[in-house]
C-alpha cells in the first residue's frame, strides 16, 4: 500500500452513497489513503454483529491501519464518538460497544471526537467519523482530535459465561452470515480440548457435539462447528441454519457435558 | 488521490461483474484513476432514486472528479448518452433525467456520446459510458468525445411545487434508503423557518410537524424530519417506514399549515 | 494501474468481512496491487453462476491480471485449490469447474496450491487463495506455488449441446442477473445467422424467436435475446423473468426450428 490503510465497516448498505461520501471525505484529507471495505450490509443498528465482524477482520491488517466502524443507533443523542489507538490498530467509531473486541490492555490512548458545527443529526459517518479518520490518515496525532476518554462502553453479553450451577457454558448468537450460519459468542478456547462429550443446544434444538467439518453430518442436518474465527457456529449442511431451525436474533446457546 | 477521481453509480447490483467490467475499461484508459463506488443497489431502472443519490454525493468530491451514473431503462433506444462538464464536476450518464440534480447555470459544456460500432444493445455501461469516462480521466477534452448538446432531459417531478390554491407544498417520494426511510423531494429551504405549525401528510397518514430527531417520538411511531441531505424524509423510529406505513413508490407528500 | 491488477469474485456477500480480509492478505504481500471486485453476491455455492460471471469479465482485463474466484462448496474436502496461468490471465480458484470458461489451448501451466498448516477448514479464501494471489502479485512464479496439475475439472453442462435426433440446441440456465433475466448456456455463435425461424422454449413457455431488443415486445411480455455476453437470455420487458415465468434454477432451455 502506497499510503495509509483505512478500513470501513457499516450498516449503510449499497442503496445510498453514504459509504462513497465517507470515502470522499477521507480522500480529501488523505489523498494517498488505500481504503478497504470490510462490510456494509451489517443488519441495521446491530452493534453485536458489527463488533463480531470487526473482530474477524482487524488482526489481518497492519497495526498502522485505521478502522472506521459506523453502526450507530444512538446517532444524534449524547453517545460519544471516539478514536482509539491500540497496539493492533487505530479505531474510529461511536462509543456504543462496537469496540468491545479490542482486547484488554491493548489500548494506548482514546479520545472523544467533537461534533463539528453544522453536522447532520443523522449522518456522523460523513460529518464526524470520516473526517477524523482522514486527519489520522493524513498524520494528525490522536491527541489533536479531542479530549481523552477513560473508559469505553463494552457489550456485556459479547463474551460467553460459565454457569457454575448448571455446569454449562452459556453464550448467544452474535451474527448470522450470508450462508445462514449463526455465529455464537462461545470460543474454542473456552471449551475443553475433548469435544466429543459435549452437546450444543440452541432454541430447543440439540445439535450434538461440535464437529470438524460440514461433511460430518448428512445434507440438511444441523451441526455445530468452529468457523474461521474460532467461534462456535450453528450450521445446517447445504442449508440455511437460521431459517431451517428458526433461530431468533441473539438466541441463547448452551454447551453442556452430556450425561455419562 | 494520485490520479483522477472517478465515481460510479448504477442499478447493476453485486450478482454480476457489470461494475467490475466498467472499472476494467476505465483503468485500461486511465491506469492511475482512483475509482469510488457511490451505490450499485439503486432499485432497477429507478431514475429518480439514482438522481437523488447522485445529488447527495457529488458535492463532497472535488470538481475535478468524473461521475459516471448508469441507470438506463432506455438502453438500446434513441435516448442520448451524454458527458457534461459543470463547475461542480463532470458527469457521464444517459440523458434520461438522471442529471437533474445539476444546478441551473453550472453547466459549462455538454456533448452527446457516440455508440461505438459493435456495442452491446444492453450494456452501454461497458461500451459507451466507461470508455468515455476513461478518456476524460486520461485527459481527453470533452469536445473530443462528441457533438455539443443544447439541453438535458430533466425530471419534472424531481422538485416539489407550491400549490397556491390549497396553500400546500407538494412533493413525492424520491428514494427509500436501506433503513426504510422515504426521502422526499421537499427541501428544508422550501419550508418556513418555523416548523411547528406544519403538518406532513403521506398516503393517508398525518405524521405531524417536522421533528429534530428520531428521539422526538416514541419507538414505532412515524415522524418527518430533515435527513443528512436536507430533504424531508418520512421515518418510523426504530422501524421501517415504507413497510410500516405502506408507502407506495413515488407517493405524493403534502406539507400544509395546520388550522390555527 | 500502478501495480499488479487483482480481481475478486465470490459468494461471500457483504454481511461479513470475508472479502476485506482477503484484500488484507493480498495487500500484505503486494502493497501496490490494485484490487477490483467483480461480484460477491453470487448465489451461495453456485459454481455455474460464478463461472458465467467470470467469463463475462476476465477478457476485459489485461492478461497480466490475476483473477481470484472463490465459490467453494467443497472447502475442507479433498478438492484441489489451483493457480492457472493462461494467455488471457492468471486464475486462482478451487478446482471445481469454476474455471470452465478458460478456453481450450489457452492454459500455459497449472499448479495445485498447498493448504498451509493451521488453515481454517472453512475459509480458504483467507488462508489459501488470497495468499497465493498475493505471492503472484508480488512477482512469485507459478511454479513456486505448488506441483503441476495435468487437468482441470470442467462443468459438463456449462456448454449447450446439439440434439441431433430432435434437431434442437439444448442448454440450461447458468445465471440469473439482478434484473431477473435468466442467462443460458446457448451462445449466439451456436445458432444460425437467421434467427426468425427459431423458437426458444423454457419451463413450458414458448418465447418465440430471439429478438434484437426489449422494445420488440410489449411491456410485461417475455422474450429471448442475446445479452452483452452473447449468451441467449430469457427476459420479460420491464419485468423479472424468473419470477414472472417461474423458471427453476438450472432449467433446461431448448431452441428449435419452428415448423415451416
How would you portray this structure in words?
Three copies of one chain form a homotrimer. The first copy, chain A, is of the alpha+beta class. Chain A is 16% helix and 31% strand. Chain A has four helices and 15 strands. The first copy, chain A, has helices at residues 18-29, 47-57, 124-137, 241-245, and strands at residues 5-10, 34-39, 66-70, 81-86, 89-94, 107-113, 146-148, 161-163, 168-176, 182-187, 198-202, 205-206, 222-226, 231-236, 252-257. In chain A, strands 8, 9, 10, 11, 12, 13, 14 and 15 form an eight-stranded antiparallel sheet that branches. A seven-stranded mixed sheet of chain A has the order 2-1-3-5-4-6-7, with helices on both faces. In chain A, a hairpin with a 2-residue loop joins strand 11 (198-202) and strand 12 (205-206). The longest helix of chain A is centred in the middle third of the chain and has 14 residues, at 124-137. The mean pLDDT of chain A is 95. Chains A and B meet through helix 1 of A and strand 1, strand 2 and helix 2 of B.
Q: Can you describe this structure in just a few lines?
A:
The structure is a homotrimer. The first copy, chain A, is α+β, with helices and mostly antiparallel strands and about 260 residues long. Helices cover about 15% and strands about 30% of the residues of chain A.
Amino acid at each position: 500500500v502506497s499510503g495509509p490503510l483505512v478500513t470501513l465497516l457499516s450498516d449503510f448498505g449499497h442503496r445510498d452513497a453514504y459509504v462513497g461520501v465517507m470515502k470522499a471525505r477521507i480522500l480529501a484529507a488523505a489523498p494517498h489513503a488505500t481504503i478497504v471495505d470490510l462490510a456494509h450490509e451489517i443488519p441495521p443498528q446491530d452493534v453485536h454483529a458489527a463488533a463480531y465482524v470487526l473482530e474477524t477482520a482487524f488482526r489481518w491488517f497492519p497495526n498502522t491501519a485505521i478502522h472506521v466502524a459506523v453502526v450507530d443507533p444512538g446517532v444524534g443523542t449524547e453517545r460519544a464518538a471516539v478514536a482509539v489507538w491500540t497496539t493492533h490498530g487505530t479505531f474510529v467509531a461511536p462509543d456504543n460497544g462496537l469496540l468491545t473486541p479490542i482486547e484488554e490492555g491493548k489500548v494506548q490512548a482514546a479520545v472523544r471526537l467533537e461534533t463539528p458545527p453544522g453536522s447532520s443529526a443523522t449522518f456522523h459517518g460523513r460529518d464526524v467519523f470520516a473526517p477524523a479518520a482522514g486527519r489520522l490518515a493524513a498524520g494528525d496525532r490522536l491527541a489533536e482530535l479531542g479530549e481523552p476518554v477513560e473508559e469505553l462502553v463494552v457489550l456485556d453479553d459479547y463474551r460467553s459465561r460459565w454457569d457454575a450451577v448448571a455446569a454449562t457454558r452459556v453464550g448467544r448468537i452474535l451474527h448470522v452470515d450470508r450462508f445462514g450460519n449463526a455465529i455464537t459468542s462461545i470460543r474454542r478456547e473456552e471449551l475443553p480440548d475433548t469435544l466429543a462429550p459435549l452437546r450444543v443446544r440452541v432454541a430447543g434444538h440439540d445439535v450434538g457435539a461440535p464437529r470438524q467439518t460440514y461433511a460430518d453430518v448428512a445434507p440438511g442436518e444441523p451441526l455445530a462447528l468452529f468457523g474461521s474465527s474460532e467461534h462456535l457456529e450453528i450450521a445446517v449442511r447445504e442449508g440455511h441454519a437460521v431459517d431451517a431451525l428458526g433461530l431468533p436474533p441473539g438466541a441463547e446457546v448452551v454447551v453442556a457435558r452430556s450425561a455419562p
